[in-house]
Amino acid sequence: METYDTAIVGAGFGGLAAGAQLTKMGYKVALFEASNELGGSAGKYERGGYRFQSGATLGMGFEEEGVFHSLYQTLGLKPPPMTLLNPIMDIHLPDRTIHYYRDRHQWYEEIDRQFPDVKEKVKAFYDEVFYVGAMVDRLVHQLPIFPPRTVKDWAGLFPLMNVPSVKMMPFLTQTIYRRLQKFGLHRHSLFITFLNGELMDSVQTNVERCPAFLGYAALQTFHKGAYAVQGGLATIAEQLAEYMKRQGNDVFMRHPIYEVSQAGDLFNLKSKREKVFRSEQVIMNNSVHNLHHTLFPRLARQSYVRKEKEQSREAWGAFIIHAGVKEEVFANTESLYHQFIDPANPEGLHDGGQFLLSLSRPEDSFMAPEGMRSLTLSTHTDIAQWWMRENYESNKQLMTDRLISIVNHYFPGFAEGLDLVLPGTPVTFQKWLKRHDGKVGGYAPTGKFSWLNSYSVRTGIPRLHQCGDTVFPGAGTLGVTLSGLMAAKLISQD
Ligand SMILES: Cc1cc2nc3c(=O)[nH]c(=O)nc-3n(C[C@H](O)[C@H](O)[C@H](O)COP(=O)(O)OP(=O)(O)OC[C@H]3O[C@@H](n4cnc5c(N)ncnc54)[C@H](O)[C@@H]3O)c2cc1C
């Protein structure tokens, strides 16, 4: 039986980034994926002539010096064709549409139009966003192991504690709401509605609960470059897996790992039909929610991750609709991404109060048959309601009707133009992506110091690491790719 240097559980973007990077470094790697698709929450499936994106639709980090740009350069790969979005999306509110431009100059002009009474304050706020966001980028791109768990991790952080990082202190110790107070914007309901929508979409929380540095980093990322990738983000996942295979490493599809245990210096990974694989190191990319369900109990008890504490942490689920739609329904808009926010929604920013519509490019023949486009509607959802079986089907129908009717209000003809409507709930995410209880998108920040509760790539078990959206720096294909690279760095250092 072959023994691998590193086994990776889960071919999400975290696992793929770690696998590709370790492959480049010359490690013998095996990547195990439970499903028959790569990319996890940023993957795809195909049905009825369409390609549907399982979750993520907006690509980030492909600009010069961006995370994927650098990774592709390291690997010597050519990125797939993609469209740089400007505007990134149109944000539909009952009384207006905000064009959210990537280009800073155009965005500041849009601020003049949308927030004329406070335009200088909003621009000053955005100046701060860009300034702090750039500092956070510089720190995170050095792949610090955070939160530090060992003397070596602390030693790695020490050189980063220089003058610029000291300047970050206020943003590490305040929420976005606190910063808005400083700018006199904390009572401006339109601007707060807008910001809450963008923060929910990127950091899974609102201005009151979002640590300033995290929110700023997310907000400025939109302006560095958001992309619609040809064939969807799954194309990236496929390229990374292909790279691993071409270099002689193994990617095992339909290979759920049921149990990871330790035997002497090696780990045993039990897969289907009781097949066992051996490896010296392991990276878990199947989310911290699943850690205790995958590790042999004696091994799991060595971890820093306390089962009860982990289970009590706030995380969202996603309600999602995939469908085809006739091209003519969106003939009057060039934007591929549309966000709908209902400031009066009693539920707040989830369960339809805020949701995103992503459309495939008309000319992207990977995604839909001619004359049609593939679309995704997605909203955050409270998980518990979906595990009450008696209301499941009726709740699913209600939410489907609700989202479709809202889009139909802004784009008349939408409901009639639909083809093959496929709703998905946290139950679907558990079934297909093995996310425990259907939790996706990592942990929702709950206050100014919530980032200190992050899980690091270290699990506390020597030579067994973790990456993905439940690990620092958190969700989004960018964040999980960084954590995958951090895990690879850790392995190369140990
Ligand atoms: C609805 C939605 C919309 C989103 N939109 C965006 C967006 O537009 N842009 C963006 O950047 N991000 C977006 N995100 C976030 C982004 O998709 C995720 O943060 C990221 O893809 C998570 O990657 P991950 O590495 O944590 O792994 P995951 O995507 O969770 O993948 C884990 C993989 O592990 C596999 N697996 C699980 N258990 C096992 C096992 N025991 N053995 C083997 N394999 C296993 C799963 O099948 C899965 O393929 C969105 C997320 C959702 C849910």
UniProtKB/TrEMBL annotation:
Domain (Amine oxidase) ranges: 14-491
Alphabetized Pfam families for the sequence: Amino_oxidase (PF01593)
Example GO BP: carotenoid metabolic process
Gene Ontology terms, MF aspect: oxidoreductase activity
Database matches in SUPFAM superfamilies: FAD/NAD(P)-binding domain
Protein name, per record: Amine oxidase
Organism: Halobacillus andaensis
